[in-house]
Amino acid sequence: MAIILSGKEGKIAERVIIVGNLGRMKTITSMLNELETVNEFAGYYTYTGKYNGKRITVNFHGIGNSSLALITNDLISLGAKYIVRFGSATGVSDKADAGTAVVPIGYSYNIGGFALQELGEMINFAATGNLDLINLLVDSLKKSEVKVATGNMFTSDSIHSHDEKFLQKWRSLNHLAVDLEGAALYFEGARHGISTGAVHLIYRNPMTGKSMSQADIERTEKEISKSILDALTKL
Amino acid sequence: MAIILSGKEGKIAERVIIVGNLGRMKTITSMLNELETVNEFAGYYTYTGKYNGKRITVNFHGIGNSSLALITNDLISLGAKYIVRFGSATGVSDKADAGTAVVPIGYSYNIGGFALQELGEMINFAATGNLDLINLLVDSLKKSEVKVATGNMFTSDSIHSHDEKFLQKWRSLNHLAVDLEGAALYFEGARHGISTGAVHLIYRNPMTGKSMSQADIERTEKEISKSILDALTKL
Amino acid sequence: MAIILSGKEGKIAERVIIVGNLGRMKTITSMLNELETVNEFAGYYTYTGKYNGKRITVNFHGIGNSSLALITNDLISLGAKYIVRFGSATGVSDKADAGTAVVPIGYSYNIGGFALQELGEMINFAATGNLDLINLLVDSLKKSEVKVATGNMFTSDSIHSHDEKFLQKWRSLNHLAVDLEGAALYFEGARHGISTGAVHLIYRNPMTGKSMSQADIERTEKEISKSILDALTKL
Amino acid sequence: MAIILSGKEGKIAERVIIVGNLGRMKTITSMLNELETVNEFAGYYTYTGKYNGKRITVNFHGIGNSSLALITNDLISLGAKYIVRFGSATGVSDKADAGTAVVPIGYSYNIGGFALQELGEMINFAATGNLDLINLLVDSLKKSEVKVATGNMFTSDSIHSHDEKFLQKWRSLNHLAVDLEGAALYFEGARHGISTGAVHLIYRNPMTGKSMSQADIERTEKEISKSILDALTKL
Amino acid sequence: MAIILSGKEGKIAERVIIVGNLGRMKTITSMLNELETVNEFAGYYTYTGKYNGKRITVNFHGIGNSSLALITNDLISLGAKYIVRFGSATGVSDKADAGTAVVPIGYSYNIGGFALQELGEMINFAATGNLDLINLLVDSLKKSEVKVATGNMFTSDSIHSHDEKFLQKWRSLNHLAVDLEGAALYFEGARHGISTGAVHLIYRNPMTGKSMSQADIERTEKEISKSILDALTKL
Amino acid sequence: MAIILSGKEGKIAERVIIVGNLGRMKTITSMLNELETVNEFAGYYTYTGKYNGKRITVNFHGIGNSSLALITNDLISLGAKYIVRFGSATGVSDKADAGTAVVPIGYSYNIGGFALQELGEMINFAATGNLDLINLLVDSLKKSEVKVATGNMFTSDSIHSHDEKFLQKWRSLNHLAVDLEGAALYFEGARHGISTGAVHLIYRNPMTGKSMSQADIERTEKEISKSILDALTKL
């Protein structure tokens, strides 16, 4: 039962890209044909268009696991089968320096919160992506000029708590980067049995001290957007 | 250290109203003078204007505790002293039928998640508002035509889990209503020692079966917006 | 179903004051007319009398959440509608120096224990008082010579653990004071939908280094007792 | 550092019996010689006397883990080396029918609460008694006419939650009986390295439907009191 | 610092296969050349040999996360860089019928236990394998006659609790199968930054009612052993 | 329903000794008459023989709570009534120096893991032994030359985490020693209502710096084996 997307039956494609940044959303929608506005309610902008002859929906997901889980549940209930998130992240590993595209296998995340409420019990539920989709994303990115890394990320619920000690902890636990929503996507995908994947562009890495310039970000996000669209339409 | 509102020093008023709905935001900003756009980045729209000669900032907070906590931390770091949220909610008590304005004393919420990460331990941290601000809000609302109720609410992290059993549980525990972000506001306010309050308009109550019409909502939200502005500028 | 007060149907007033100190109990009962002994079993002394023409029950609550929750459940099952606790507390905030009367909005408390057993799940259940009763108490106290502060307190389960680090933690989290039973009263009131309030006299504040003398305590407790009785009989 | 018993250095014996019922306390103190009143403050009555030529302190412990832990910490800080509790309990096993004296090896108890606060982490800390003291108690009781059973008990934090389902659960887990404070005694004893033991007289067993009459209770409590004093003075 | 394998420096290959079944171990070692016995202490048999000219260690891992974590930490401390587990599992999904080889992306597992002790905090730590190694295993298996499935599994700590309700739960959460040790391997690999992978042969699937015959198992385990050795030596 | 020992009905004695070390197993089986091999499957060797004319089963239990719980459940389901574990342990108390035989009353252990899965809730479940069996073991050992200590132990789930801080913590909490499986035996015994006991030989104590030589271990294990057999056959 869709909530934000209530009444949008038939307007959501099987292939979906979700983003938390309106600029990134425009970068993607500008690559689509036959673009249609599906929803602008509550800031959860939804557009459906075509790429390589296949329908693609692009959707805003907001900040935090609860927000992303909400829109993801809506999308799944309306027929989404493959959902790829294109996000950013903060690198903590040398393998995830600024400019790298991280394709996570899984996310570590806080106990409790949305996962506890959904499952009704506390369990270390594996928030993992779909192997085929992850491979398509990695292969597609490797054809671009963007450096790719795969591994685990940590999904934080509180960006204001990201102090040095926090970042060092996840670095020492061999995580590549931290974000704010990734666990919810892989959690919902794994739970509902649909295919999810994600690409995070590392804007900055406080461990190496490197950051991307705005121009670099824009150029790289175009490349990644194209790679994601190519991957999704190979399915 | 502000994140979304980085670089907006001096542009945030001591008195802030936060909302998760762009229509509600317009209702409020239309009542302000000398309105200035502070931020439109990342969908977290921020405007500062004047009401009764006092500066008021209005800010979007997104969906979920993580999102609201992020913007609230930003606002506090930039000098906000009084933050009132104007939200909606789903009523579960007969005292919170559709059309009622609920002013919560406190929120129950899931263990773990944002609160665990911020505190570094699991503790039942009291997410409560400021007594003076709550009283000003209640008094101001009582001068309007809107019915007012006070008590506890539950902040959910997963709106898709709101089944009959869930709603009955919180009803039987004498909670008035459920929402998606309220705990984070009162938690951050209590933790940082600033004054927070909230007004939730009950759009619908599945227990009584009543809902507000869109026209009713619009008219009532205007009344509530005025009540909140009156209360905030009495401080 | 009453346990300690089994068989005392009809002998408990709607308005109740609970205390954990027999001296404080005598201070209160000495202000009542037509005093009747209801119970002396198990050390949970219970008296019912009159003040301003209205019936008032005064009851001992023992030490700890389990003890207070037990007698509170008994009182509610026998018809109590308004329960105010008059206790002491240790101040940790500058706003709660020795001699101050703290009227808490809510209490933070340890996860697990009595709350877990009663609810059957771990959730951050809001232990908050009733707004009207809190306001009556604050207003009544403001008419006395006692300084009043409102905000959050922490209910500890282990007074022997109150070391410097513990006190500094709650101070830094903007809590006013710590006690041993308050959470249970507000928890039971919120859960069962009856009105609860509390007044804590700060005997000492290790942060400011100030303590009340025994003479000060006795004089102030008389004032507060009168304020509570005045507030309760305005309902 | 003693709190309730502050200033009572030298007045507490190495051998202590604690009780939560003033009648039971009188039964024990009436068997002592040279009885001295040590404390009557805060309802935590403390008496020290002699039995078989050895000093014995008898102390009230109140209701709940927090209350018992508080007085136990006080007693230990003042030199107590052997603490035996004489309490009652509700039987749930056929081995613990009304009239049986249960000497527990260990107690199961709720996670969180006092144990979490004292240890600073959640761990299944073994709340067990001292083998030598347990054996002395069992041997001494076997010489009386009272039936004895040994095994585990559950310490509840909420007597109002003791419904049929609750009692059946602990019965099916092969626990003998439930009480309200036992875990705290064995926990503190194990943690501080002093010897603790306990005897619980089963007043009633809802599973068998049997209860003791008041006359039976009085007679049996005298026998048990003597058995405990005999055991303690063999050390 | 190795514990079971203390003193075996230099005798452990970078490429390791671990198994919990001595028959399966023999199937693998029979395919190696230049086989050397490294350890037979404590039942944790360890052999090192060669396949395709590369050194391979085969090690027993016992039952349960603690046992597997222990030997895995030993292997890593002695230089293991790629560890593949060849285990069995109970299928719960139609995609994991008897005879299928499941290559898990990640494992869900119980909170607490070994993971809590190792990390010192409760967090949903992603127990995921290495993408390259998983892909090599899948590709190698696809060249055999064995059917392959990828996705999540649940690692149980108590095989006696595997009742119908338990199995249905994990089926409904789209997990493929349940085992007893898998989470520990992926957890340790992710934490220490070495590459892990796993292949589970589904002996039976209580949902479909199908089981493998002993002859089938033996034949299929030979195929899978060869596939794993081929995959590992491509690195 | 037995899993490892499936099909071994009638071959398991009421009296069982379990061990995690094959050498120790041989020491015990060499003292039995009419020895029969019951199982060698999966490394869980099982032998049944006679001592003092009574049947005794000896069984391997592997490493970790999950492994020991599995075989213990199997043994109980096949009729075991008295299970004694003969293990080793690392001493942390001066009372448990190298060469001491520790007979634990109870075990502390990590929350979550096997106990959470079996009980379906998080509770501090008392993992305690049977008083009569413990007393028989202690009495029997006291007749030997081996020094005996009784008290609590901690069962660890991760031997690699046993750093100085860890050992000091349990020492300061008055625990005698740490092992890897003990909690599971006492937990299963308490839960199922059968009698369990344990004897741990302290191989080394990092606090005192003392260790046993291999010759000492062999000689002492013979003595302890005889003591256990003598105790078990007194039942």
Automatic annotation (TrEMBL), chains A, B, C, D, E, F:
One of its GO terms (molecular function) is catalytic activity. SUPFAM superfamilies: Purine and uridine phosphorylases. InterPro entries: Nucleoside_phosphorylase_d, Nucleoside_phosphorylase_sf. Signal peptide: none annotated. GO terms for cellular component: cytosol. GO terms for biological process: nucleoside metabolic process. Residues 15-228 form the Nucleoside phosphorylase domain. This is Purine-nucleoside phosphorylase. It comes from Sulfuracidifex metallicus DSM 6482 = JCM 9184.
